[in-house]
From TrEMBL:
Keywords: Autophagy, Cytoplasm, Cytoplasmic vesicle, Endosome, Golgi apparatus, Lysosome, Membrane, Metal-binding, Protein transport, Transport, Zinc, Zinc-finger. It comes from Oryzias melastigma. GO terms for cellular component: clathrin-coated vesicle; cytosol; early endosome membrane; Golgi apparatus; HOPS complex; late endosome membrane; lysosomal membrane. It holds the Pfam family TPR_Vps41. This is Vacuolar protein sorting-associated protein 41 homolog. Residues 1-13 have a biased composition (Basic and acidic residues). GO terms for biological process: cellular response to starvation; endosomal vesicle fusion; macroautophagy; protein targeting to vacuole.
Amino acid sequence: MAEVQEKDKKPSEEFTDESEEEDSEEEAKLKYERLSNGVTEILKNDAASCMTVHDKFLALGTHFGKVYLLDIQGNVTQKFVISSVKINQISLDESGDHVGICSEDGKVQVFGLYTREGFHDNFDCPVKVVALHPQFSRSNCKQFVTGGNKLLLYERNWLNRWKTVVLHEGEGTITNIQWRANLIAWANNVGVKIYDISTKQRITNVLRDNVSLRPDMYPCSLCWKDNTTLIVGWGTSIKICAVKERNATEMRDLPSRYVEIVSAFETEFFISGLAPLVDQLVVLFFVKENPDQVVTDEESRARPRLDIIQPLPESYEEISSDALTVRNFQDNECRDYRLAHAEGEPLFYIISPKDIVVAKERDQDDHIDWLLVKEKYEEALMAAEISFKNIKRHDVQKIGMSFINHLVEKGDYENAARKCQKVLGKNMELWENEVYRFKTIGQLKAISQYLPRGDLRLRPAIYEMILHEFLKTDYEGFATLIREWPGELYNNMAIVQAVNDHLKRDPSNSILLKTLAELYTYDQRYDKALEIYLRLRHKDVYQLIHKHNLFSSIEDKIVLLMDFDKEKAVDMLLDNEDKISIDRVVEELADRPELLHVYLHKLFKRDHHKGQKYHERQIGLYAEYDRPNLLPFLRDSTHCPLEKALEICQQRNFVEETVFLLSRMGNCRRALQMIMEELGDVDKAIEFAKEQDDGELWDDLISYSIDKPPFITGLLNNIGTHVDPILLINRIKEGMEIPNLRDSLVKILHDYNLQILLREGCKKILVADSLSLLQKMHRTQMRGVRVNEDSICESCHATILPSEMTKSFSVVVFHCRHMFHKECLPSQGTIPGLQFCNICSAKRRGPGSGILEMKK
């Protein structure tokens, strides 16, 4: 529960709210300040008895019979001396142009603040309350009510005289009246009544719950939430009453409206005032001293409380609760407190005899204040950023700076540096101050990664200071900054010199060497950067060459590049032949044949003709370093000298390559002989004979194999589809033992049967297709051909049909749909009765043969 206290003994000081438990994490909902200025002077010698709030001004009544009009700061604008005794009630209409006042000596005055019209009367008993019609300024609404021993309605008639009507009497003193629209609510000793002035009917009677309480000591509090909702607070009970229209079928002799109590509950303390706050209630409680409890701190016993509660049907939920230290609260009773509120504005005035306190909803500035007090800087910064247009007392950047200072004090340098990006923005002066502060506390590393490096840039000296700091203590961090920071941020030459000084002490430090290469790159001294990258065998060397077109610089470094990464180097050289020629590369690699072979091999793979003049040289390179690719090279190359290749292969006894070269040079018999004699591989020999498809080679193969049973077996198993097996079988010597002869003969027979089946199957398919096509052709040729007056003779181009159909005519129509007059066709050929279309006969015969002859 928040506690509101004075800052010091000066009566005009504002209120401050403090938590009874200083470590409370719950923020107060309202803030408080004492209404001072003119009010302070008034209450020195007088005491407040009542006050009414209008959105334009305040009207304050005192115990000495005076009424003061105040502005919202408490300055007196007008003063009226009404009586010498207590002012009981002040009422204002909605426009604020008319005021009604009643006092303890029975005086009632209703007058215009800006006109002379008015009502003045004296009664023989005290008048406790007065209420003007909300639209009193309108000529047809000149009505007001007063309450003492009876409730009187005053209404001005057309003769400009005041007519009086008694609305109610006989239930004791009327202590409160609230008029809203057409409804008048009042409270007396028995309960609360509501009167509908439009229908002139009393529509309800809400009885008082606790009749043991004296109504003059614990008066009823009334307030309208809207035109149909009345809130009643009496003693410790609160009721919320809704005025509703009665169904026409239920009326009979009943009022047209009725009241339903939608919420009723008991509170802990005595109610001194009520006010609505959206769907919640603001309640002013009088805390009565407990006579059974010994309390040493007198001030803590009877301070009034201002609570915000959420009404429920039969209970309530407390939202906030503040104890108010008003002046002389020890001497006050429940009846001495009043709660007044401004319509449509969350302003609440707590009135006591010697003090007036204003309660306001806390705004965003107040919320930020609370967050800062609780050291919730991040939330305060977020709240300020979201509501930067609405805050008046705070500055987003100042809050951010407080947050940074707090983080630094806590030693959370990383987060403090991160927040600098967001808080300092484009303020260079603040940035530089923070950098120097981080330097003072030895935390330059923390802020380095968050320094501005875009459009906003600090002085180069700032960046250089940080780089020097890293260079002294952290080579890795220094290298990271050099990679991340643009070279324009600092003096590149100064940093290069500093790195070189460190390299003198540690010349093989790879991190410094790499960083120096990057600095040279920023400075466009690519040759120096390239030397370092090659020395380090760094992967970025190829990217550097491509990015900055350094091919002229690497012509004498090709061997180094190849030693570093052969694949990448060769790909780069081949992709840029226009910049480094093939001849130049071959010249550089002349002393490193193994690297030269890698280059020429990839060149040959890309294009078989580009390096043709080096094909003779490649034979030896393949033979020396890459024999598996020699045979594919010999097969694909058309520029390779075969004699040279044969010589190298024979010298190295490369049988397969020699066989290929002999066959390519036309010496197939010698090639076959090498396969049989040196390789002894009948399958390869058979494959070779199949490739050459030469009958003499088959004879040589059979002759060579006839005295070698294993070879005969191989031939029997494989030559069935190329050579008649009978030729081989007939040449086998009688009595020769041949391994797996039976299986070989079975295979031959099986292959033969398979060939026969394939031939028969093909024959059946051929016959079926031929028959199908013949039937299709027959159906096509049997179809009629339409001849009409639009058809023309393909020879004379005249109409086929004569204009006079009575004359005889003869027409020949061919299957190709060409038509002729019979007399336009040439004489028949050698075959009697067979004619051909002149147009189609030059192409083919058959379809153009005559199919129809028309005569008439």
